[in-house]
Write a structure and sequence with these properties.
The radius of gyration is 17 Å and the shape is globular. It has a single domain, classed as Rossmann fold, CATH 3.40.50. It is an alpha/beta fold and 247 residues long. Bound molecules: 2-amino-2-deoxy-6-O-phosphono-alpha-D-glucopyranose (GLP). The site of 2-amino-2-deoxy-6-O-phosphono-alpha-D-glucopyranose has 13 residues, from loops.
Amino acid sequence: MLIIVKENYDEMNKEAARLVADRIRRKPNLVLGLATGSTPVGLYKELIRMHKYEGLDFSKVVTFNLDEYIGLPSTHDQSYRYFMDTNLFNHINIQKSNIHLPDGMAKDIDAFCDWYEEQIKKYGGLDLQVLGIGANGHIAFNEPGSSLGSRTRIKTLTEQTIKDNARFFEKLDDVPKFAITMGVGTIMDAKELILLANKANKADAVKASVEGPITAMCPASIIQMHRKAFVIVDKDAASKLSQEYYG
Ligand code: GLP
């Protein structure tokens, strides 16, 4: 685990974008796992800039997103598909057929989840997975208590996550209660991981993930078992870490 503490959000994004761009340049058909939430927005902006001004080519890149709300069509402005289109996909030269997100409107959710896992395998597995982290230590929508070996499946969101995400909806009741999410085991199978966190409200979760015991009560703590994980955080999110780490 390489923990990199950056001065601020901008620096965090630049570091993460450098890494992602390097992997795309080395392997143009990279299988890239993507995340939603406010954290990776800056990374996506930087990747868009690199595409426009530095020729970063996404034409062969294949993406798989971590999760999606159940019951929101892709046209809903709070669906993760809509988020990805507006924050990244519409601004780069990725082929639509190479984009994969869980389908929150799937009729048979279990069958869909199995299919999603199969698709990841078909492309040879995830090369690099980008992750944010919830204030309670969740990754994707793997809430505390999620099996550390879990695969793509339906999950019920916790009260805290629903409250945290309510800022994006008109009212609390509009926040979906269920999601399809890659499992912790699915994420751990990625060859490389980048976990991003900024702001002081993530400091406890970052400390628990990096320095705490490995426990299903903090699903992100499993990254301690990953062979090649980069934890890129800003100073505020790193403020509760007990050790000095790379700058
Ligand atoms: C949601 C997403 C997670 C994300 C988390 C944190 O729950 N499913 O993938 O990491 O939000 O979001 P934010 O980056 O907005 O704090």
